[in-house]
Amino acid sequence: MRDTKESRLLLVLLIAIAFALITVDIRGGEDSPVDGARHAAATVFGPIENGVSSAVDPVGNAVAAVRDSGDRHDRIAQLEHDNAALKAKLGSDDRNRSRVRQLDRMLKTAGAGQYGIKGAQVIAIGAAQGFSWTVTIDVGANDGIRRDMTVLNGDGLVGRVTTVGPSTATVLLANDPDFTVGTRMESTDELGFADGQGDRPLRVQLLNGKAKVAKGDRLVTFGSQRDKPFVPGVPVGVISRVDPSGGDLTRTVYVRPFVSFTKLDIVGVVVEAPRKDPRDEVLPPKPKPTPTPTVTVTVTPSANAPVDGQQQQ
After folding, report:
1. Which of 160, 184, 240, 257 makes the best surface tag, with the fewest CB within 10 Å?
2. Spatial distance between the Cα atoms of 264 and 260, rounded to a whole number of angstroms
């Protein structure tokens, strides 16, 4: 429609009529005279609106889905982050619980032997001195640590202090080939000397070539003069093999250490020796042997079995 005087007049007239109908509809309420016309318009234009809505809704849903997908991605990323943090926390708690158990066992060992100890943590493996089996601990001269002090943990003998710095110290482990400690057999008191053999069992030379020993017997430290480098009564290990006696002056046995030298974490340095030899008091109780089940088999004669002296048909 062109912009003419008549078209402008018609537009003003339509606007006036529209306002008049709106006013009448508002004042009429539910009895509005245009209510019928509104229903008729809804009948005519309703299907068109539904069609347009059906055409538009998938697009809107797709947009919403993309938006929600982004939200879900963010939520998943947050959940994954929280899960990783929780796992790290649980791992840390497990580590702390493990250290608490180690400390508890070590304190029980020290209490049984009446050893005064200084707790320490293994912070490094190996040392510049060339020792093949050594660890570095986080205590030193400032903590009262001196050379040739016994080192133990909750399982038994770990080694001895060889080098001391202001805040750290080097410990020669009991399985090092240069390590030697005097031992005493549980109950029989047979004496010997244990030498480290790396990742193999300790080699112990018993002074009595005719000593009666058996697999499963246990050994503790004999102790040194003035308790350096070893205090008495620290568990060493259990005999795993006995060499046949060949009439030698000494007898050789092989001992599995109580301590796992590849899993060291919490250790204790004995800074005060016991007033008396604890003997075998520090050794853990011997495990009870597992009883071997006995099976009794009873044979019940079958009803169809032949009677003595008769053959089965």
Report:
1. 240
2. 7
